[in-house]
């Protein structure tokens, strides 16, 4: 397991995210420019503060961030469809399985969530896209589904997903996303762990 240190991680991210090679997607050869910043879920509050500080720091370097919190995005979608209030009023009377099935249907990653993300991408002038709120939408939205569906649309600029858990690269079996350090969210091999990148 990687040793988590908010201060060290912050400094590393500033170094990498402000580099010309990173911003021009020259770090990963022939791959989509997807990166994972994993972190200890026990330090969620610290991570949220760090993300806000990071966005401010990057602005000092004229690096513009499109910060998409997936949970906030799904709430907006539910409100637009007039579903939010109904689920707030009836959540306690619905089984967890039905709630999960309902939300997976309403918030289908391919047909609903991804178009909402790509709309924000097209409307925003940015250099790097941050994806946050990943743990808050589990289990009705899975991180690897978001990345798989964005591959066709997010090729030109780097995408950094902040992942509450571990992104582990196994030599023989590939990489896996372990949500909260406990749940195997699924195998995903096309992203790089941002903390393993040293040369910029």
What does this entry look like structurally?
The protein is built from eight helices and seven strands. The protein is of the alpha/beta class and 200 residues long. It has one domain. Strands 1, 2, 3, 4, 5, 6 and 7 form a seven-stranded mixed sheet that branches. A hairpin with a 3-residue loop joins β4 and β5 (174-179). α7 packs across α8 (143-150). The relative contact order is 0.20.
List the helices and strands and how they pair.
Blueprint: H1 6-17, H2 20-23, E1 34-39, H3 44-60, E2 65-69, H4 70-80, H5 84-90, H6 96-106, H7 109-123, E3 128-132, H8 143-150, E4 159-170, E5 174-179, E6 183-187, E7 191-193
Parallel strand pairs: 1-4, 1-7, 2-3, 3-4
Antiparallel strand pairs: 4-5, 5-6
- Could you give a short account of the major beta sheet? 7 strands, mixed
Counting helices, strands and paired strands, the structural category is: alpha/beta
**DSSP strand (E) fraction?**
15-25%
Q: Into which percent range does the helicity of residues fall?
A: 40-55%
* Through-space gap between termini: 24 Å
Number of strands: 7
Low-confidence stretches: none
Average pLDDT rating: 86
Q: What is the overall shape? A: globular
DSSP summary: helix tally: 8
Order of helices and strands: HHEHEHHHHEHEEEE
Question: Cα-atom Rg, whole angstroms?
Answer: 17 Å
When the domains are counted, the total is 1
Summary tags:
globular, 7-stranded mixed β-sheet, 200 residues, alpha/beta
Brief sketch in words of this structure:
With 200 residues, the protein is α/β, with parallel strands linked by helices. Helix content is 42%, strand content 21%.
């Amino acid at each position: 397991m990687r040793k988590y240190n908010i201060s060290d991680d912050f400094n590393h991210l500033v170094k990498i995210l402000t580099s010309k090679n990173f911003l021009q997607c020259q770090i990963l050869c022939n791959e989509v420019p997807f990166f994972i910043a994993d972190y200890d879920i026990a330090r969620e509050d610290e991570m949220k503060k760090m993300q806000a500080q990071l966005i401010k720091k990057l602005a000092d370097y004229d690096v513009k961030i499109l910060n998409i919190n997936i949970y906030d995005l799904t709430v907006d979608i539910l409100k637009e469809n007039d579903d939010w209030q109904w689920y707030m009023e009836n959540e306690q009377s619905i089984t967890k399985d039905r709630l999960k099935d309902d939300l997976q249907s309403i918030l289908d990653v391919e047909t609903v969530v991804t178009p909402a993300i790509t709309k924000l991408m097209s409307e925003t002038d940015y250099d790097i896209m941050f994806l946050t709120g990943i743990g808050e939408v589990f289990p009705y939205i899975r991180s690897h589904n978001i990345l798989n569906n964005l591959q066709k649309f997010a090729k030109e600029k780097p995408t950094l997903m902040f992942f509450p858990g571990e992104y582990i690269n196994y030599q023989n079996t590939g990489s896996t996303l372990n949500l909260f350090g406990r749940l195997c969210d699924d195998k995903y091999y096309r992203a790089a762990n941002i903390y393993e990148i040293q040369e910029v």
